[in-house]
Amino acid sequence: AVPWQEYPFWAGDDLTDLPTRGLFVGPVAVVDGYVLPASPFELWEKGGGYNDVPFLIGTTEQETDFSPPVQNISMWTWEDYDWFVTEKLGSFSKNLPKDALSLYTRSAPCPTTDRCPERAYTTMTSDIRVTCPNNDLARRAAAALQSPVYRYVVTHTPSVAANVTGQLFSFPARFSF
Q1: Less crowded by CB within 10 Å, the N or C end of the chain?
Q2: Backbone angles phi, psi at 57, to 5 degrees
């Protein structure tokens, strides 16, 4: 059985946050030997054992905004943003926070007059956790398949924050839907 909180695991509690040094989220593909005889990447590398059909991969630019790591992110100042990025990435290397902050800057376009630090943070976390891994998946699929592979990223910002009156979402995401 696959553990809930140990590598590789199902839970992935930090999948909408920047990585934590020493905590590895293991993607889980249930290789049962029947429906899935080996991992998808392994099958693609071997060149067989899969159906070659058109493949569509889509994400949103701020995908992780639906469930950010902290509930007060919508009230962050730029100083909060700088501190949080530095705190999370500083354990990997001294220069990583500075490099990340230079790529996801205060001057980046923001389609709203508020919540711009939230947008920068969720763009960064989405790139690390969703966009880049799915770009890699699309490249691997394109190399293995004869059928077309389509990759898209939704960059549109909704006109209002998500409605959280139901049970599905607990955070009024401004950028992910």
Answers
A1: N
A2: -130, 120
Phi, psi values for residue 117, rounded to 5°: -60, -40
- What phi and psi values does residue 153 have, to the nearest 5 degrees? -130, 125
What's the 3-state SS for the chain?
A: CCCCCCCCCCCCCCCCCCCCCCCCCCCCCCCCCCCCCCCHHHHHHHCCCCCCCCEEEEEECCHHHHCCCCCCHHHCCHHHHHHHHHHHHCCCCCCHHHHHHHHCCCCCCCCCCCCHHHHHHHHHHHHHHHHHHHHHHHHHHHHHCCCCEEEEEECCCCCCCCCCCCCCCCCCCCCCC
The confidence band for 82, taking pLDDT boundaries of 50, 70 and 90, is: very high
Q: What is the pTM of this model?
A: 0.89
